[in-house]
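New here. Invent one.

***
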Amino acid sequence: MISKIKHFIYLLIPGPLRVPVKFYYEKWRFGHESEMQLLPYLVSKGEVAVDVGANFGIYSFWLYRLGAKVLAFEPHPLCCQFLLPWVLTHTGVTLCCEAISAEDGVGCLETPIDETEVVHYAASSLESRGWESRNEVVVRRLDSYSIPEIAFIDQSCPQYLGKADQEGL
């Protein structure tokens, strides 16, 4: 029932506004992850930021608002459909509807659906988990892209800033 109500509200919001509405709703309802508060200190205007596992674009939106050129990777088709109208109206954002992994190819993205029929897109995985929602997705290596001067959030490399969700890397 909740998922049907969310879907109805989603359809009422014009496509290019869905990502900002989701960003501010999440901020108001749950608060953002603590890493979000660090981004203004770590990302400079004009830098290239890569958001691997963009989901519904919370990080991509904030990175764009901070002036970064954003390259967002999201393999789930419904998340890509959600992001696309916003991306098409923002020249500093590029969306690649692909998974990032260690090897190029095709993978099966599995997404859990709970007993109340809520789909948990953020928990999607390329690893076989036996979940009922499956999508065949293109898988590519990040280094197969020619990306100049990337800012990464990575604890092991403090001079760079970047964000990546693991979906079976």
User: Anything to note?
Assistant: The longest helix spans residues 18-29.
